[in-house]
Amino acid sequence: MHIGRLDIFFVAFIGLFIGLFILIARLSGWTTLAAFYRLSGSFNGECWRFRSGELRWKMGYNNCLTVGVNPAGLYLSVFFLFRLGHPDLFIPWADVSVTTGKRGFLSAYTEFRFRQALGIPFRVNERLGRQILESAGSSRLIGSPPNKGRDADYSGVGEKRWTEFEPSGRNSKGGKDEPNHADP
Fold first, then answer.
1. Overall fold of domain 5-165
2. How far apart are the C-alpha atoms of 51 and 71, rounded to whole Å?
3. In the 8-state DSSP scheme, what is residue 43?
């Protein structure tokens, strides 16, 4: 049997893509998140498909993410063609912190950080961020600045604020609506 150049090219091409997906997962921090938050089983909740997000070092996942929410936590998955090295993730709300900000003149974002991997941010556009927080079962952010109130008011986007999100309206210590002054 003779192996032609086309066969070698095809095998090398497939190998390159496999290596690239694994490298992207490691560089972006997906692999680190999976070490703590790998989903075992299936996800049941509201999902938005073909969404974009950004992880560590501005590694963009453009139009290939499925983002899901239920009262227990946040679900992240990559489109099946790009899933190699990217297992599905499920992060409990108790491990999620939220901040909002503005990049440039017009680009507002919502950033999620995760207790077990603080060095790996997950950024989405403001609209998707709002959908995620509202669909989680509550629109309350704990620790909003006192002059802004406690409801999920995004009119202050551009002003950095660090808050822990709890869909039940309770903070991580079990108390009700007490400010959390944690630094990022």
1. PH-domain like (2.30.29)
2. 20
3. -
Q: Structure tokens of 116?
A: 């077990």
* Contact (Cβ atoms closer than 8 angstroms) between residue 99 and residue 122: no
Percent helix, strand and coil across the chain, each to the nearest 5: 30, 40, 30
Burial of 170 (0-12, 13-18, 19+ CB in 10 A): middle
Query: CA–CA separation, 114 vs 94, rounded Å?
Result: 9
Report pLDDT digits (tens) over 30-53.
889 999 999 988 999 999 999 999
Q: Which token pair is 95?
A: 């491990």
Tell me the per-residue pLDDT of 86-139, one tens digit each, with 9 for 90 and over.
899 999 999 999 988 887 777 888 999 999 888 899 999 889 988 998 888 653
Q: pTM for this structure?
A: 0.69
Going by the DSSP 8-state scheme, the letter that residue 124 receives in this structure is E
Give domain limits for the chain: 5-165
Q: Give CA–CA dist 84/14, Å, rounded.
A: 12
Neighbours of 164 (CB within 10 A): 19
Residues 122 and 68: beta-carbon distance below 8 Å:
no
